[in-house]
Amino acid sequence: MADLQDEIVALRTQVAALTARLYRVEQRLGLESEQPQEPPKAVREVPKAPYPLVPPSSPVKTSQPPSIAPPTFASSLAAPEKEQEELEGKIGKLWLNRIGIVAILIGVSYFIKYAFDNGWIGPAGRVALGLLAGIALIFWSERFRARGHAPFSYSLKAVGIGTLYLSLWGAFQVYHLVPPPAAFVAMILVTAATVTLALTQDAEILAAFALVGGFSTPVLLSTGQNHEIVLFSYVALLDLAMLVVVRMKPWRRLLVGSFTGTAILYGGWFFAYYRRDERLVTTLFTLVFAAIFAAIPLLTPLTRSRWHAGFSITLTFLPLVNAGCVFLCLNAMYENDTLTWFSLALAAAYLVLSSQFKRRVGSEPDVVKTINLLHVAIAVAFITIAIPLKLNSHWITLGWLVESAVLLYISVRTNTNFLRYFAAVTLSLGILRLLVWDNFQVQRLLFNARFATYLVAIAILGGIVVTANRSAGTRELLAVRLASILLNVLALVGLTLEASDFFLRRMDGLYQIYPPATYHQLNLARNFSYSLIWIAYGAGLMMFGFRKRSAFVRWQALVLIAFTIGKVFLFDVSELQQGYRILSFIALGGVLMGISYVYHRDWLKLGTGAKSSEAPLA
Description:
By secondary structure, this protein is mainly α. Among the domains are: 1-53; 416-513; 527-618. The protein contains 21 helices and no strands. The radius of gyration is 43 Å and the shape is flat.
């Protein structure tokens, strides 16, 4: 133990000597070095080493462990101190800045008001003072931007630009010093100068100031008179200017602001001044505005470096709103016949726009696919709207059914899942209208418009089921099974309605000639025909399920047969005559015995636990 202690003392002595020697060498070479820390008291009084120091010619080879800085309180307190410094800087640089600007403006406003009240400054002087103050603020703000205080500079510019607009408004509306064209041109120059500043200084906030000022100009200079051509021409030019700015800079939010401003000015004018004799001009400008905002995907940059990651609201939400607003405006001006052609023309335009966009952009597959499908969806919506506008009665239902079939065919051939949703919506509208809304006047059995429409819907659902057997996945299994159920429901409803109308036509023709007893016989025959149709259809559906080895189809048949059993035992027994009652029970019993025989033979090997090779459709 004593030897170990002596070795430790010797090592400490050697380290202290080497440290002092290294410090003296650095001092002679003129190198900057920190003053060596004073060794501890135990090392300061170096005892005589029991072992000789290692000479420089024979250095001791030791493995030096990496130095680890000891933890300090500074590292644990750095984050709170940094947050306090950021908060302090934000208050001092931002909020005190804005409060100071507001205080100065309030003080200047009180001074100007005092001068106005005492007649020191006349109307022309007031306007000139406002213009000079606005220009001075803009030039003064440049000094702060040059020194690196951009936010403060933009705040001053906002005040200066607003002062210029208000001064021009006062010169025209309040003091009537300038005519409307002069004030209009002056405000356009202010807007153009602001846009130029935004582009040269790469400041989106200045472009937003220009956008607000540009759309405020017609409101500030309004005379209460109808100047449709001048107003809408100016708005169209302003929209095009914003589109050019966005093409040069990735400031996509300006387009949303431009669309909002256009919609506000258009709506305000329409509700105040629109007359039917101005419909042609209004329609022309409506289509111009629609074209400008529909062309955004073709005229704006789409690379990831120019647009943010993901899909922007400008390319997804804005086209939908634009299309809806255009249709609402046209709907307010035209009747159904003309509106149908507008809907079809808009659908064609969006299809062309979709193809042109896909041809133009090839480097961003996700963006291209989304926007392309969005335009196709808008076109489909316009076609769906056009059908009920032009057609009537069951032709609307037939048009929706055919449209859904076309969409399904395109979606399968092009592997576009997006179109399947629109096809499902259109098909649902057609089936719902067929079951609830349509009122057919039928004169023939089976060979009539109603049964033909039912056959079209059944054929489409059958096509869905057959196609799904080849390509449907597990996620689509529920939709395919729903299509299979709807197919059978439509078939049953269609056959039942045919039987009902067949007997009703005979009853209406015989009511005036034959006694009521004959009329009652026909009514009993009609009710019996329902049971016969349902039993026969259930038996056929069961045989189809056995042949296709589909448990889902067999379960549908069992449900239908159970429903028919309930009708026979609860209704036919009490309502039908003896002959129809006998036939109902014999037919039902025969079908049930036949199905039971098939299950007893176990042709599907259900008793052995073998699984049926069931397809997704059934």
